From TrEMBL:
InterPro entries per UniProt: Aspartic_peptidase_A1, Aspartic_peptidase_AS, Pepsin-like_dom, PEPTIDASE_A1, Peptidase_aspartic_dom_sf
MF term (GO), any: aspartic-type endopeptidase activity
A single BP term in Gene Ontology: proteolysis
Domain of life from the UniProt record: Eukaryota
Pfam families, per database record: Asp
Alphabetized UniProt keyword annotations: Aspartyl protease, Disulfide bond, Hydrolase, Protease, Signal
Signal sequence extent: 1-20
Protein name: Unplaced genomic scaffold scaffold_1702, whole genome shotgun sequence
Organism: Paxillus rubicundulus Ve08.2h10
UniProt-annotated catalytic positions: D105, D312
Paired cysteines (S-S): C118-C122
Annotated ranges, domain Peptidase A1: 87-424
Length: 481
């Protein structure tokens, strides 16, 4: 295999979009999906700067503007990759089924995997072999998508796809036979988009939407809990950070338990109190919400009227409009715009604990000071997680991209009907998984408890052009942000 630079890995992760095992009993006939996570704990300052630049570029590119046998539930354990940089899970394609690791991205809508016809750029990756599946069909339609970190091309196909105990026959997806070098890095084989069909570059109905719309799930929703292993803030550890369950895990590996993705139910052991749901305005495209208030160090930041925020598991950090990001750092004495590869980011004194809170509905949700710090670039200076990216090009385009830096602090629920997003406070059980010394989850496809046939494709009327799409993922879902 040709050597792949970490910079290339970063580009991959930020252009794409990645969980912990539940501790309570799964509902009848239920199954779960383990997640793994990525994080940049061992990166030097130059590599972190390249990662930051790639993340910002990817956000700008990305947001430029059936029959059912029975209802059920399931889960998939997630992997935390490269120290909170992204999170991925596993699914299976074909007959007989073959497992693949894919970035989990609520910021895009396409499923694609590298095929055996892919060139040198796919060496060392798990690749899908169409000739080995008896249920594979080639749709003879070309597929092309461009991300901030590269591009991918191939063709649209259909086959049986399994994940978390659910099976969808004739699921549309893309088999990629040409990608930019470094766009994918082992163990990833592709990306699973978890946004709505209206923005699918492939025009295929997403796997999750097929299941939710068909009634295969007990409840029409999926939920995500993400872990934290980032050990970059060891000099800042104190009581406040401990209360937020920040883990100074200097022994964290590139792959760690990442949390859990559940289909068809919410895991009550992972959150406390009630889940607050906020309706998605208009026709669902991205998972976005009106951002009502944002406070930094207790002071309110002025927001543009009608500010929309995309909730994106495939993005590591948080992107916002230039004037708002300037106002955020104006609340932090000693902060200033960063330069060179850090353009669009700000640096601030590492000794400052920055408290940020968001309100999307009636409740205010806090972000740990540990998650505000993205990188430490000197003995006293750190880079913040908020960066400038004027993505909003229209009334239905989100101007804020809220990634894993915030999502690690809440239990997140994505509901099909009514289209809405819910947040809840993490339970002690969920918080205890941060930095937990445990084996990396193995693929958790699950025995099939519900089967669905996918006979529909996304309406081309609402389809965005491929060049307006970008990967925000997994668990690599977060490297760039």
């Amino acid at each position: 295999m040709l050597p792949i630079s970490f910079a290339s890995l970063v580009l991959l992760w930020f252009s794409l979009e990645t969980f912990g095992a539940p501790t309570d009993a799964v509902p009848l006939a239920g199954q779960t999906i383990p997640l793994r996570r990525r994080s940049p704990n061992g990166l030097n300052v130059t590599e972190l700067a390249q990662l930051a630049k790639s993340q910002r570029d990817a956000v700008l590119t990305k947001y430029g503007g059936p029959s059912v046998e029975k209802r059920s539930t399931g889960y998939n354990l997630i992997v935390n990759q490269l120290y909170d940089s992204g999170y991925y899970g596993s699914l299976a394609i074909g007959t007989p089924p073959v497992s693949f690791d894919v970035l989990l991205d609520t910021g895009s809508s396409d499923l694609w995997v590298a095929g055996t016809s892919c060139g040198i750029a796919c060496n060392g990756l798990g690749m899908f072999d169409p000739s080995a599946s008896s249920t594979f069909t080639n749709q003879s339609t070309s597929f092309y998508i461009q991300y901030g970190s590269g591009e991918a091309a191939g063709y649209i196909a259909a086959d049986t796809v399994q994940m978390a105990g659910f099976s969808v026959s004739d699921q549309g997806f893309a088999v990629v036979d040409a990608i930019s070098e470094g766009l994918l890095t082992s163990p990833l084989s592709g990306l699973l988009g978890l946004a709505w069909s209206t923005i699918a570059a492939s025009r295929q109905t997403p796997f999750w939407e097929t299941l939710a719309s068909s009634g295969a799930w007990d409840s029409p929703l999926f939920a995500v809990q993400l872990t934290r292993y980032d050990g970059r803030l060891c000099k800042l550890c104190n009581n406040d950070l401990i209360q937020h369950r920040f883990i100074n895990d200097t022994s964290a590996q590139q792959l760690e338990p990442g949390g859990v993705l559940t289909f068809g139910y919410t895991n009550s052991s992972l959150y406390t109190g009630s889940i607050e749901y906020i309706d998605i305005p208009g026709t669902p495209t991205y998972w976005y919400l009106p951002l009502e208030t944002l406070t930094v160090q207790g002071n309110s930041i002025t927001l543009s009227s009608g500010s929309l925020a995309a909730i994106d598991t495939g993005t590591t950090n948080i992107a916002g409009p230039l004037d708002a990001v300037e106002a955020i750092y104006a609340q932090i004495p000693g902060s200033q715009p960063a330069t060179s590869s850090w353009e669009g980011y700000y640096q601030f004194p590492c000794s400052t604990q920055v408290n940020v809170a968001f309100s999307f509905g009636g409740t205010t949700w806090s972000m740990s000071p540990a998650d505000f710090t993205f990188a430490q670039i000197s003995s006293s200076e750190c880079i913040g997680a908020f960066f400038e990216a004027n993505t909003g090009a229209g009334s239905a385009t989100p101007s804020w991209i809220i990634g894993d830096a915030f999502l690690k602090n809440v239990y997140s629920v994505f509901q099909y009907n009514p289209p809405s997003i819910g947040f809840a406070a993490l339970s002690e059980t969920a918080l205890a998984e941060n930095g937990l010394d445990a084996p990396v989850p193995t693929p958790t496809i699950g025995s099939v408890s519900a089967e669905v046939t996918n006979n529909s494709a996304a309406s081309p009327r609402h389809r965005l052009s491929p060049t307006s799409m970008g990967f925000s993922i997994v668990v690599l879902f977060a490297l760039l942000l």
